[in-house]
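Response to reviewer comment R2.3. The reviewers asked that we include at least one raw input/output pair. We reproduce the pair for AMP-binding protein here without editing.
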Amino acid sequence: MAAAIRPQSQEDTDEMPSVSGATDLLKGLVPVTKAGIVGPMGPGRLAGVVSAWYQWDFTAGGLLAVAARRDGDRIAVVDDRGPVSYRQLNADARALATALRERGLRERGRIGILARNHRGFLIAMGASARLGTDLVLLNTGASTTQLAEVLAEQKIDWLLVDSEFTPLLTDTAPRVAVFADAEPAERPKNADAEPAERPKNADAEPAERPKNADAEPAERPGTADRVGVEDLLASGRRSTASLPRRPRRGRIVVLTSGTTGTPKGATRPEPRSWMPASALLSRLPLRSAETTVVASPIFHTWGLAAAQVGLALRSTMVLARRFDPSATVAQIGEHRATALWVVPTMLQRITDLPPGDRDVDLSTLRVIAASGSAIPTGVVHKTFEVFGSVLYNFYGSTEVSWASIAQPHELRAHPTTAGRPPLGTVVRVLDDHGAPVPHGTVGRVFVGNGMLFEGYTRSGSEKEVSGGLMSTGDLGHFDPSGLLFLDGRSDDMIVSGGENVYPREVENLLSELPGVLENAVVGIDDPEFGARLAAYVVRTDDPAGAGLTEDGIKSHVKAHLARHCVPREVAFLDELPRNPTGKVVPRLLPKA
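Raw output as returned:
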């Protein structure tokens, strides 16, 4: 029988690995060694790397420190402020952690970050890991009301925020540090150096620690108490204060998409080993010390994965605060990028560019990694036409992290497949009683891996678990060869006239119809049949789009799918309502 998830404690996650777990760790060395994460190095560097892993595990703080000690001069990030090296990024993470600690932040505290893609995000991740705090990733599309509710619910101690979002803050906001705008700030010449007066045991706990050192300050100033992140960095560089020698392994709280209301916080553990990277790299041909364009927002699970894998690989990550399809293609060519991380709506906008806007050398691009929602089949075909066999479809969720990855040869043969589970991952399709269903039969998708989330931060919110596997909330089936296919969300399926109807099947069909730019199909109440489908279509700006009619769409569906799959209503929109991660927000669709 299925059960609700029990949130894990710190002790749960610190248990010694089992024999099977140790075997997986050994298997996991293969992909990380092949990718160059693990490799030969001199005794001095090896000692530094081992020390960093001991102090900060495989958190962002540990990965930054390892990269700085192995390849410190390598460019870590190229953003709208220019390039920054791994040595400099690591020093900034240390400086920010020191400054926040001097201002009272301690282990188990909480840092919130409301920012677009830039170096500050990685600095915050590294600083949080060095402090042993939890890091809450806030959605840049949140309203003032949503943001206030989330800040209160998550009990944020410090909020690191882009200046453009400060008008959303209320007087009840926590302490606030504001990231600099795009223009680079003047940087001291010795910014990357250790403080001159830094004692040998500077990373150790102070010998005489006040009894109330971990207590909250007596007062919590409102938004009037704001400081620039650059000021904090400058303060931290000058400081000789100590940081925890081996801090608590913190948590990252990722907010759910919030398509139906205020987002919930999903608590995710930091990686304990190389296995999360090994899982992805077992089916993604990424290599260390290459360049990656990360277009996916880092506050989202997929963008966060891109940043974590990028740090592990010592990649040069090209970041932009706002996504622009033409600029993204130009970045690939300019920086000779080998990988691009996107959500499907970004990929669609890139493939829809006029050929002239893609007239750059893209010969270095080996991987387009897409996730966040289903990739329309039309976009799959167009991606292969434009870029060749480079598309990898990643299926996962905020709660289960990853489930499966479809490689290019699988997508060419089966454009709607979610692929196969990577290393160390179990995927099962179960019936309502928790029993596996035969191949070809639709059931509920359950996943097991080493990075399942630990529970929602909001009481009363739970995720179903069956036999140690966690529900994704999706319906799906396996084909005889073991490829996974998704049939839609469990709560999206409708029963119309006694027949089970899956909206995604209709969406995939319409995405290949000439004249359809994008579409969404949802179930609505029907007094006669119980429920019926409604299709919302955005037309292309060409003769095919202009010629598209409601009757034409219905006829196309009727010719290819069962009668009960034909939408009863078709509405043409200028655009679909989406959240910042590209997911359609059904409640914002006009009523049919």
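DSSP finds 17 helices and 28 strands in the chain. Residues 52 and 336 are 30 Å apart (CA to CA). Further pairs are available on request from the corresponding author.
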